[in-house]
Design brief:
The complex is a heterodimer of chains A (115) and B (113).
Chain A: E1 5-7, E2 10-13, E3 19-24, E4 31-37, E5 44-50, E6 53-56, E7 65-68, E8 75-79, E9 88-95, E10 105-106, E11 110-114
Parallel strand pairs in A: 2-11
Antiparallel strand pairs in A: 1-3, 3-8, 4-5, 4-9, 5-6, 7-8, 9-10, 9-11
Chain B: E1 4-5, E2 10-14, E3 19-25, E4 32-38, E5 45-51, E6 56-59, E7 62-67, E8 72-77, E9 86-93, E10 101-103, E11 107-112
Parallel strand pairs in B: 2-11
Antiparallel strand pairs in B: 1-3, 3-8, 4-5, 4-9, 6-7, 7-8, 9-10, 9-11
The chains are: A mainly beta (115), B mainly beta (113).
């Protein structure tokens, strides 16, 4: 597709369950980012991929959070043993990743609600 | 610590007037700055950017000003239109690492008739 696509757009899960959130970046973009946005806050960085590898995962809050990008395109953010505090909008973005001056393009986000 | 700050959570401006949204940053390694606009239930959309080698960038009704010594940037929208009503995020990038955009907390702009 032309833009960054995220599925599902909404996810409601019970506390303690496992969830997977998917991101399809813009074709040809080597850099992919996951952000989390809580109510009233700006997007908060979680993890950055350059190609298949996680170049910076310093934003992942704890070891319940994990992300993969096995073929350098689609990425999946995985959250184990979900907690109510994980409820937020999870945003994915991609960019050309060529360095220099560039912009990141965002998907519409996945709204995760943990009940 | 909040490296990018938008101290005004909201702003109301009359249609046709100028909207000025402000942003301050603390990290001197940031060298590229972007403004994103966000409507409810949508992802942030890129609006305009400026590199640290410039002090002004203009695109139609939108102008971004950068004051490096003060570590301050601002977004001017003139004339403001009702469709500009949205949340605006300031974001900063260290292009040397390109590892992440750091966002401010956003300013909600309401353009009234």
């Amino acid at each position: 597709g032309a833009g960054v696509s995220q599925t599902p757009s909404n996810k409601v899960t019970e506390k303690g369950k496992y969830v997977e959130l998917r991101c399809d970046p813009i074709s040809g973009h080597t850099a992919l980012y996951w952000y989390r946005q809580s109510l009233g806050q700006g997007p908060e960085f979680l993890i950055y991929f350059q190609g298949t590898g996680a170049a910076d995962d310093s934003g992942l809050p704890n070891d319940r959070f994990f992300a993969v990008r096995p073929e350098g395109s689609v990425s999946t953010l995985k959250i184990q043993r979900t907690e109510r505090g994980d409820s937020a909008v999870y945003l994915c973005a991609s960019s050309t990743g060529q360095g220099g001056y560039t912009e990141a393009f965002f998907g519409q986000g996945t709204r995760l609600t943990v009940v | 610590d909040q490296q990018v700050k938008q101290n005004s959570p909201s702003l109301s401006v009359q249609e046709g007037r100028i909207s000025i949204l402000n942003c301050d940053y603390t990290n001197s390694m940031f060298d590229y700055f972007l403004w994103y606009k966000k409507y409810p239930a949508e992802g942030p959309t890129f609006l305009i950017s400026i590199s640290s080698i410039k002090d002004k960038n203009e695109d139609g009704r939108f102008t971004v000003f950068l004051n490096k010594s003060a570590k301050h940037l601002s977004l001017h929208i003139v004339p403001s239109q009702p469709g500009d009503s949205a949340v605006y995020f300031c974001a900063a990038w260290n292009t040397g690492t390109a590892s992440k955009l750091t966002f401010g907390t956003g300013t909600r702009l309401q353009v009234t008739l």
